[in-house]
Amino acid sequence: MEKLIYILSIIILSSCLNNDEVRMHRNDPNCKIEINATKIVSGNQLSGKITGNNAGSMRLNLEGLFSNSDIKINNGTFLLDSKYTTVAGVYTLSLYDDLRLVDSKKINIIAGDAYDAIPSFLGPKKIPSNNRKESMIVYVPEDKLGNPVADYTPIKLASRIKNRNDNNTKTTKNLLVYELINAQNEMGNLILGAEVELSHSPESVLVIDQSWVNSFSIKIVEHHPVADYSKFVLLKSNVVKDENGNIVPNGTLVSWNIYSSNRLIGSYSSFTINGVAEVYVQNPRAAANWTISASSLGARSENSISLNFNKAVDGFTLLKNKNGFTIGPVYGALGQLIHDGFPIDLKIKIKDRIIKKESVLLNGKYVYTLPKEFVDQDIQLLVEIGGVQKKWNLKWER
């Protein structure tokens, strides 16, 4: 038995030695990769051949940063077509015998010329004209296959604000070129563009907005000092400017606040046109004294306005009839009827029930029809028109 094991061991060892001899005989340590260039433009073809014996039994592999592909060897030659050369970068072409590396070559696939529109990225797209904030525009020129162009490619940069142009040239680095933009102290739209070879960027627009608003003044344009709830006060600002003397752009918000007895009773908003803001404020429905101020982007008006409104209603009467009652005529200080649409407030108390009603005058009067459940009931009536109040105790009998 021991002799049989010994004989089998000799046979197996002999077989392994023979296999190594075959492998060593098949491998050719002189096999090499030969290519016609080590640098090509993306999308172009690259051909080569494998020298030495048994090239057809070997494996050729192309490895890049984002790819790994086996290349077919045909009668000792191979071809890297555009399928393998689209993406720019440094690739390694390796020749293997089974898992053993026989030879390798480095291939640099570079981007072609800039093509079509240059992608650009701007942000922020609006900055104040206070010389304290910046924006940045980035350009990434690409070839027709989408590869960023090579570093140190010169790019012409241009900008225009109002009628002034500025031009300079920068070179790409790390696949792009960028420029920091300082707003200085002038408002307007800064137009930005770039070009390289026959490629151009789309137009980019940086809005240079107003800086902090300086204080401004306000004034009365129209004022009818009667609390008639139909006329309007017209208020107007002077030209609103920022701290650099720039007129604020159209559409800048101005807020108007109305106070009575130090209590805020109303707020209005308007927007500037050519730096000026106007607002209409409806007259009150009762006598009042107002103080009005304005603000814009954190700046308050340097002055406030006082407005006085006299009462519009001088008096009114009540006429009772079998179906209800009529309030009016309601008249003013000149004996004139108060206009249609003037508000009237009623409070009707019957037993423990209180009914509140709001309505308006028509032809100087208000007509109320009594509900049936009010008959044979004692009614307390409170009427207010234009700040004037009157009370009546009424009763209707069947």
Mind explaining what this structure looks like?
The protein is mainly β. It has 4 domains: 26-110, Sandwich (Immunoglobulin-like); 120-209, Immunoglobulin-like, CATH 2.60.40.10; 218-311, Purple acid phosphatase-like, N-terminal (Immunoglobulin-like); 315-395, Immunoglobulin-like. Helices cover 7% and strands 51% of the residues. It has 2 helices and 33 strands. The strands form 8 sheets. Strands 10, 12, 13, 15, 16 and 17 form a 6-stranded mixed sheet that branches. Strands 19, 21, 22, 24, 25 and 26 form a 6-stranded mixed sheet that branches. Strand 27 and strand 28 (324-331) form a beta hairpin. The protein is elongated and about 130 Å long.
Largest sheet: 6 strands, mixed
In total, the number of domains comes to 4
Structural class: mainly beta
Strand content: over 45%
Give the proportion of residues in helices: under 10%
Question: Could you tell me the radius of gyration in angstroms?
Answer: 46 Å
Q: Give the overall silhouette.
A: elongated
Broad CATH class of the largest domain: Mainly Beta
CATH superfamily of the largest domain: Purple acid phosphatase-like, N-terminal
Mean pLDDT figure: 88
Would you tell me which CATH topology of the largest domain applies? Immunoglobulin-like
Q: Runs with pLDDT <50, length 5+? A: 1-27
Counting DSSP E segments of at least 2 residues, the number of strands comes to 33
- First-to-last CA distance: 140 Å
Seen as an oligomer or otherwise, the chain set is single chain
What would you say the CATH architecture of the largest domain is? Sandwich
Number of helical stretches of at least 4 residues? 2
